[in-house]
């Protein structure tokens, strides 16, 4: 079966599960975007690659002349010819089906009643577990092998009652025909099944695998690399409509694109590089120019990895190592992520190129021409590819365009770049943390994007081949068993310069390498033991993403004194992250009137059980470019409360971006703040506090004032049979503010027998101090 046929079969299964109109509406868009198409198809058939999904999607757009995405009408046309698909039933399957149908007829039960009984979650469809129980109801002695064989026939679908009835009717037809012709193997036509070939083709002998740099590349090892002239994009993304319009205008006028918003002039260079001139890449490389060029010299790179690699990246005179180290890490392990950023993936006559980036939490389309800065010899002055490729220089130019000019992208936080490329959450881990090794291993196991940076100054750096204040790509973490050193944790690192490597233990020339552990290559890649890494590197910058995860965001205004609440319905168990994004520091470099810095964000996540009941999930208070909460969450309704204490004194109100990212497409909805939410969830937290202190017989107290959590509490529990009235006065109070209805420096609490209560307070990020004094009041 060809890849297009495989995608079509998956699409047909999707049609069985849910009407296409509902499928499209679930994503809140008038059409099905490419990223959503990928997710749906790979969920149904995980063996289908993202490349096959993209190829099918683009071909469908071209065939049906759509510039906006896959409409409901196109989806229906694609599947209208798939009504009859031949299936061959084996003798073993026939015996199993016969038993099921015989018992079904003997029980004389209406399928509607049977369906309702096994539809335990009342979602009007049978999931695999529910369908399995139904099959076992009609075939009590079915073996696991027989069930798995039948499962291949019915597929991993969620059956509606109509589909179940249709399936049993077809099985009855099989049994009846077999009774009439017992010697003939049955071949019938299903309306819901993909074709099953009568004979399996003999598997070709697999060649001996070539070692690859990363297991992630195995996904693209045998894929035919396919680049699009112009990817279809969601027109709701900022800049998308302008791109489509510009492309049409250039094609009609037969002109080439000149970017007036980021012109080839000093304005785009910045004052530091005003001596440079500009030249089109099409003039520099002429007929050899390509967006991505294949490199067959590296046996360790396979599939798309031969076209897009960390080895493509060579840093120029621009000090943006934080940017290059980030894209180097991603290009090494996830080249398809780099490819998908480029809307135009081939050199074109219009010299119009476009890249998608997630800037300050919002995905945008960045239009570019092919002018780049050059030195006096007419060669690229800044970052470039190793050969006549465009992708590195264009990606760097897009970053410069969205951040004022080239001068202003010198120096920065790698997390900005990782977020802009992946959309996933980012964080930082310092090498002096007591559990650094455990955190590093966890990030490696999660397959996170990781970069690192050396300390700003160290006299030993030059002696050991390192550069102070420099960003490096962290490509891989290895735990090896060395014949003399025993268990060793090694980090594989790359200098974006493409040269100048660490020359200490485990460097290319180190005597620690043996025949089993050999590493000798001068390409900027080197290995370090974890203890040396902690000595010379300050932190690792981490980003977490999954290629199939979906992103959605809302731009909002937040008042300094107001708490904002979002309600979010999560349709299925999965991994989800909720993030508050602030503008990057570099946005205000030229605005001297505003002393911009990141503001503290307080965020609280709870599961809404209904009727005013909440289940605490997590909370945080942090001052950073992004603040996020999340992880593995179960199906249900969730509430997020956010408060931003703007650091700029004149900002009583300012905009921010709130995003949701995870295994399903989510639509957050801003709702009025539930005043009882904080008290309900914090009371839940307090009840789990094991450090209860006895104030008097039968009266217990606990308090928590951890600044990083943002909210603190004073908790009281009456275990006696009498009523207590208690007053608490805080002296020397700093950084603690009681939440309403309590105000000032003291409060009264009255507790009936068996009752517990909580008093909440907000905590100043700068720190808190107080002395509590409890008194019983008559």
TrEMBL record:
Single GO term (MF): calcium-dependent cysteine-type endopeptidase activity
Lineage of the organism: Eukaryota, Sar, Alveolata, Ciliophora, Intramacronucleata
SMART domains in alphabetical order: CysPc
Keyword ATP-binding carried by entry: no
PROSITE patterns named among the record's database cross-references: CALPAIN_CAT, EF_HAND_2
Domain EF-hand: 106-141
Keyword terms, alphabetized: Hydrolase, Protease, Thiol protease
Domain of life: Eukaryota
Record has Hydrolase as a keyword: yes
Sequence similarity: Belongs to the peptidase C2 family.
Gene Ontology biological-process annotations: proteolysis
InterPro entries with a match to the protein in the record: Calpain_cysteine_protease, EF_hand_dom, Papain-like_cys_pep_sf, Peptidase_C2_calpain_cat
Catalytic-site annotation from UniProt: 321, 470, 495
Residues covered by the Calpain catalytic domain: 256-546
Name of the protein: Calpain catalytic domain-containing protein
């Amino acid at each position: 079966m060809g890849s297009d046929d495989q995608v079509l079969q998956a699409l047909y299964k999707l049609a069985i599960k849910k009407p296409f109109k509902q499928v499209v509406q679930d994503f809140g868009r008038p059409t099905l975007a490419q990223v959503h198409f990928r997710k749906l198809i790979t969920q149904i058939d995980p063996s289908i690659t993202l490349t096959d999904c993209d190829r099918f999607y683009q071909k469908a757009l071209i065939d049906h002349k759509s510039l906006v995405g896959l409409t409901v009408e196109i989806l229906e046309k694609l599947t209208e010819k798939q009504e009859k698909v031949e299936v061959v039933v084996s003798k073993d399957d026939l015996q199993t089906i016969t038993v099921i149908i015989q018992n079904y007829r003997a029980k004389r039960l209406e399928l509607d009643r049977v369906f309702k009984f096994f539809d335990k979650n009342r979602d009007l469809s049978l999931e695999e577990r529910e369908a399995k129980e139904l099959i076992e109801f009609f075939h009590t002695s079915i073996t696991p092998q027989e069930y798995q064989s039948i499962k291949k026939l019915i597929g991993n679908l969620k059956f509606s009652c109509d589909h179940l009835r249709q399936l049993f009717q077809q099985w009855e037809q099989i049994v009846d025909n077999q009774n009439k012709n017992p010697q003939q193997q049955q071949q019938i036509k299903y309306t819901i099944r993909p074709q099953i070939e009568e004979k399996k083709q003999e598997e070709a002998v697999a060649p001996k695998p070539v070692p690859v740099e990363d297991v992630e590349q195995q996904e693209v090892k045998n894929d035919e690399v396919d680049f699009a002239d112009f990817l279809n994009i969601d027109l709701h993304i900022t800049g998308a409509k302008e791109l489509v319009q510009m492309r049409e205008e250039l094609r009609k006028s037969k002109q080439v694109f000149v970017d007036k918003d980021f012109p080839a002039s000093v304005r785009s260079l910045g004052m530091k590089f005003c001596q440079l001139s500009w030249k089109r890449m099409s003039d520099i490389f002429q007929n050899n120019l390509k967006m991505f060029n294949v490199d067959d010299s590296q046996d360790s790179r396979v599939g798309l990895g031969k076209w897009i690699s960390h080895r493509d990246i060579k840093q120029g005179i621009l000090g943006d190592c934080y940017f290059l180290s980030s894209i180097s890490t991603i290009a090494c392990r996830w080249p398809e992520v780099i490819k998908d950023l480029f809307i135009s993936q081939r050199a074109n006559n219009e010299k119009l190129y476009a890249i998608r980036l997630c800037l300050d939490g919002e995905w945008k389309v960045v239009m570019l021409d092919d002018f780049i800065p050059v030195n006096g010899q007419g060669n690229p002055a800044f970052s470039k590819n190793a050969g006549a490729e465009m992708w590195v220089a264009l990606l760097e130019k897009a970053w410069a365009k969205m951040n004022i000019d080239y001068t202003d992208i010198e120096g920065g936080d790698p997390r900005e770049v990782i977020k802009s490329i992946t959309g996933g959450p980012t964080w930082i881990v310092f090498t002096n943390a007591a559990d650094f090794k455990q955190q590093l291993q966890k990030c490696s196991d999660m397959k996170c994007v990781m970069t690192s940076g050396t300390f700003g100054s160290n006299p030993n750096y030059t002696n050991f081949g390192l550069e102070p204040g420099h960003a490096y790509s962290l490509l891989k973490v290895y735990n090896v068993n060395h014949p003399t050193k025993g268990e060793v944790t090694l980090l594989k690192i790359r200098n974006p310069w493409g040269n100048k490597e660490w020359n200490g233990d485990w460097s290319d020339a180190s005597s620690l390498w043996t025949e089993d552990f050999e590493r000798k290559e001068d390409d900027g890649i080197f290995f370090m033991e974890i203890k040396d890494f902690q000595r010379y590197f300050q932190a690792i910058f981490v980003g977490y993403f999954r290629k199939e995860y979906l992103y959605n965001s809302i731009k909002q205004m937040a008042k300094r004194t107001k708490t904002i609440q979002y309600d979010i319905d999560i349709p299925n168990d999965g991994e989800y992250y909720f993030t508050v994004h602030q503008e990057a520091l570099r946005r205000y470099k030229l605005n001297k009137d505003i002393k911009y810095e990141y503001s503290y964000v307080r965020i609280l996540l709870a599961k809404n059980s209904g009727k005013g009941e909440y289940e605490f999930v997590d909370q945080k208070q942090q001052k950073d470019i992004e603040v996020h909460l999340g992880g593995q969450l179960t199906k249900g309704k969730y509430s997020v409360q956010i408060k931003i204490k703007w650091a700029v004194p004149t900002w009583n109100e300012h905009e921010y971006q709130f995003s949701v990212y995870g295994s399903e497409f989510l639509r957050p909805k801003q709702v009025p703040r539930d005043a009882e939410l904080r008290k309900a969830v914090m009371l839940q937290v307090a009840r789990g506090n094991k450090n209860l202190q006895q104030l008097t017989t039968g009266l217990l107290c606990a308090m928590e004032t951890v600044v990083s959590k943002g909210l603190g509490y004073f908790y009281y529990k009456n275990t006696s049979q009498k009523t207590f009235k208690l007053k608490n006065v805080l002296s020397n109070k700093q950084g603690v503010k009681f939440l309403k209805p309590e105000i000032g420096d003291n409060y009264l609490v009255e507790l009936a027998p068996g009752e517990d209560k909580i008093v909440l307070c907000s905590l100043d990020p700068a720190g808190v101090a107080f002395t509590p004094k409890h008194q019983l009041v008559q």
